[in-house]
Amino acid sequence: MKVKYLLMALSALMLFSATTADAKKKKKVDLWPDGTPVSEWFKQATPATLESLGKQYVLTEHGVKQDSTLVQTEAIQAVIDKAARSGEKTVVIVPQGTFLSGALFMRQGVNLWVAEGGKLKGSDDIKDFPICDTRIEGQSCKYFPALLNVDKIDGITISGKGVVDGNGLRYWRAFWLRRSWNPKCTNKDEQRPRLLYVSHSKNVEVSGLTFQHSPFWTTHYYQCENVRALNLRILSPASPVKAPSTDAIDIDVCKNMLVKGCFMAVNDDAIALKGGKGVDADKAPDNGSNENIIIEDCEYGFSHGCLTCGSESVHNKNIILRRIKVEHGQRLLWLKMRPDTPQNYEYITVEDITGFVSNFIFIKPWTQFFDLEGRTEIPLSYGDHITMRNINMTCDKFFEVQKSDQYKLSNFVFENITLNAKGSPLDESQVEGFVVKNVNVSY
Fold this sequence. Notes:
By secondary structure, this protein is mainly beta.
């Protein structure tokens, strides 16, 4: 009998241990802000190696000259096209040296590798970027392509240890000259290309490279799925000449995107979520949601917004910004509430952040260049289920949130926050359903 009871006790102990282990595993499951599980895809963040990218086509071995003063768009494009015609998995290599080019278009089956000491540099003459159908500032329209363009490709890697340089100084000076003559000059009015534009593509990796001195937005992803941006350095100056509108990463109607291990210091938003603009933006087929986006383990130099929703944005859901160090950001979380666009920013979590920002959270109407197109009623927008937690920072202003009839704010959680701030105390009345736990602010 003693043996029987001993076996029963042992069996119960084993069952308890297994149950406890299962419970611990469940606790460790990564969840989206809406409570659904994050897929294993987001844990696969090892960059591709050159050897894994296929048959190698080195530019200088296929007719491209090692001449930093010669624009060689056609010669470089010919190498890309030749690699595509091979029918094999291939990689075009930019070797050591500087290679000038206008707009280049990647092909299915062709990867790109910029070697250490290599630089792919954009032309500073806009005629080297012929107008085409593209997407810019929340609209599908005719505009200038990027230096590197990826469209309708399934499976591509753009990587290496080299530099992709936008050569933007001439464009920046022209923009500010035009703005001084016409203060209403829009970002699109001064003609300038982006550095990388990826559209209608999936299973994309962009890793290891330095993207710098873009004339306009630095990297832009539109209607893409399963994109990894890994270990990038994205740079543009705030002085002595400001690089206008040089967002580091613009995410535009994308699903499943991981931004990890990047350093971003740009004269605009570091991460901007876009998706469309206008009174009927939520109905237009070219527009849509950003869903399942993680930005983690990154460092920020200077930027206008660490995580910005808008201004051309319709719907953002399940967005995570975590484990971030900020040297000097103007705004940690910025919700641009555009009067002419129905917007819904929901299930956004910002956590485990250190450093300095001018504004901890910033929510106000965004009125630059908006257009109600003759309508009198402003569409209602929403900011819902916004969580900010486990944050220790210094900031100038804590709670820059303006109540407005044009949007409704609800279900905010501020938890485990320690701030050294100068002003803008927390005003819980601005939000319907505000949970505040262990928030300590020293003024």
